[in-house]
Design a protein that fits this description.
This protein is α+β, with helices and mostly antiparallel strands and about 150 residues long. It has one helix and nine strands; from the N terminus they run H-E-E-E-E-E-E-E-E-E. It folds into two domains: about 35 residues; about 110 residues, Immunoglobulin-like. This is Anti-sigma factor.
Amino acid sequence: MRLAARARRWRAVAVTTGAIAASLAGVLVYERALRPNETAGGQFIAVVNRDAQQPALIVRVDTRAGTVSVRSVATEQPADKSLELWYVAGGAAPKSLGLVPEGAGSAQQRLPVPRLATDAVFAVTVEPKGGSPTGGPTGPIVYSGKLIAE
């Protein structure tokens, strides 16, 4: 009798443990399915240009360090205006990465999101001097580029 009771108890423990493991696996799969367009950590680059011509900006993203480096290569700065760089992904509101350096300058910013989306695009708009007054793009897009793994 004692042996049968022990066997039932161990069987119940095994079934319960298996159910817990299956539940945890299901949660992990479900969580990943909710965020299918996020990249893993690492280094990424976007060549930002107009009509697939000469690059205007090189944008490098290091997700581990949480930084975005912007190097101006051949941007045309309009008189009395600023160029502003935006991170656009997944239908969310664009997030400003700051003003584009004038001339052949470079700048480093903090990454505005905890994870990058695989469909991320960087876009540059013409804004009033000093940047967008609204926190969102107000002028036309003059350059854009898609994020790719480096």
